[in-house]
Amino acid sequence: MDEVTFKSDTVLSDVHLYTPNQRHLMVRLNSMGQPVFLSQFKLLWNQDSQTDSGTMGGDHRDVPREETPARTGSTGSPPGRGHSGAGFPLQAGQEGTGAQLDEDGDLDVVRRPRAASDPDPVWPPRDKVHPMILAQEEEDVLGDEARESSTHNIIKIEHTMATPLEDVGKQVWRGALFLADYLLFQRDLFQGRTVLELGAGTGFTSIIAATAAQTVYCTDVGADLLAMCQRNIALNSHLTAPGGGGVKVRELDWLKDDLCTDPEVPFSWSEEDISDLYGHTTILLAAEVFYDDDLTDALFKTLFRLAHRLKNACTAILSVEKRLNFTLSHLDVTCEAYDHFRACLRQLEQLQDGQLRFAVEPVEAAFPQRLEYERIRQLELWKIFVEPGT
Ligand SMILES: C[S@@+](CC[C@H](N)C(=O)[O-])C[C@H]1O[C@@H](n2cnc3c(N)ncnc32)[C@H](O)[C@@H]1O
C-alpha cells in the first residue's frame, strides 16, 4: 500500500498523519482486510531517572521550570512567556521570545530555546508529532545488547490508519499519549492499583498504566479491535510491573448495562474478573472518547453505574482534545463535542443521590513530557473524584 486513501468518511489521527507512508512498516491485513502498521513510540523516562524514581508525587512545584516543556499551540508561546497579558503573543519588534512578523507580515513565532536538560534536543523535535517508525533494517542492525536496552524504552503498537469513524479505536490518538504522559509522571499514584480503562483502543494508555499498576482492565468494543489491542499488550509484556497481574483485555460496551459473562464470547468477563474489578478498582481512565454526544452520554452513564458498583472510592482521569470546527449551522467556529463533555461534567458534579459525591477538577498540564507528540494547548486532563455522599 503506497498511499493512504482518504474518503469523506475516513479519519486519520494526527499521531500518524505526519509520518511519511514509506516509513510505516505494514505487517499484515487484519480480519477486515485493513492494512495494519507497526509503530514504535519512544519512552524518555530514563532521561531524568532521579526525578522519576519516587519524587513525582504530584506536586507540580517539584518540577524544575526548565524541564517543563512548553505547551505548544497555534501561537507556540509557552505560558508566562511572550504573552502580552491578554493571552496574545508579543508584537513584532518587542523583545523576548514572543512573535515576530516575517517579510510578508505573517506571524513568525520564535520558539522557546531548548533547555540543556531537554532530552534529545536535536532529533526528533519534541514539538512535532513524531512516532518513531520501526523499519525492518533498524531492527536488523541493532545488536543484541542495544536491542535489549532499547526494549525498555520502546512501546510497539500495531494500528491501522485512516479508518472509518466506527474504527477510530484502531489508531493512536494524541489524548492517549497525553494521558499516558500523566501516568508516567504520577507513577506512585498507580503503584499496585487496579485500574480500568474505558475505550482503550490500541491499548497504549493501558500498557503505560501497567508499568506501575497491579492489574489493568483494558476495555473497548468489537472483537477485531480487542484482538489488535490484545496483540499490543503481548508485544509490550516486558514493560508490565514485576509481580503485577498485567493487562486484561475485556469487552465493556458503554451502551450496555452489564458486562458480558458468556464464555463463548471473545473478551468476556469471568466471575473472578468481575469480583476483582468491583472489589479493587480505584482508578478509571479514558482517553479521547468525547467526540460524539450520544457516546459521551453513554460513557458518563457507565462511569456513574461503575462508581456505584465499585467497593472503594475512585478517581477517573479523562483526557480530551478540544476540537474546534467551523459549523454551517452556527456560521462560526465551535467545539460542540467538548462543550457537551463539559456540560456532562457539570451535571455529574450536581448529582446528589445520597450515596456518592462527584467532585470535578482540571489537571494542570505542566507535567513533563516523556513521549514524543505535539502537546497542543487544546489537550486537557480532568479528574473526577468519587466519594461516599454525606
Ligand atoms: C478516538 S478512539 C480513542 C482510543 C484510545 N483511547 C486512544 O486515545 O488512542 C475512541 C474509542 O472509544 C471506543 N468506543 C466507542 N464507542 C464505544 C462503546 N459504546 N463502548 C466502549 N467503547 C466505545 C472506540 O472503539 C474507540 O476505541
Descriptive account of the structure:
The protein has 390 residues and is of the alpha/beta class. The protein has helices at residues 14-17, 49-52, 136-141, 144-150, 174-185, 187-190, 204-209, 223-235, 271-280, 293-309, 336-350; strands spanning 10-11, 25-29, 35-42, 99-101, 107-109, 132-133, 154-159, 163-164, 194-198, 215-220, 246-251, 281-287, 314-321, 325-327, 332-334, 356-363, 379-388. Among the domains are: 82-110, no CATH class; 166-388, Vaccinia Virus protein VP39 (Rossmann fold). Helices cover 25% and strands 22% of the residues. Strands 11-10-9-12-13-17-16 form a seven-stranded mixed sheet, with helices on both faces. Strands 2, 3, 6 and 7 form a four-stranded antiparallel sheet that branches. Strands 1-8 form a two-stranded antiparallel ribbon. Helix 10 (293-309) runs parallel beside helix 11. The protein is globular and about 55 Å long. Mean pLDDT is 77; it is low at 49-99, 110-130 and 132-143. It binds S-adenosylmethionine (SAM). S-adenosylmethionine (SAM) binds next to helix 5 and helix 10.
Provide keyphrases for this structure:
alpha/beta; Rossmann fold; seven-stranded mixed beta sheet; four-stranded antiparallel beta sheet; 17 strands; 25% helix; binds S-adenosylmethionine
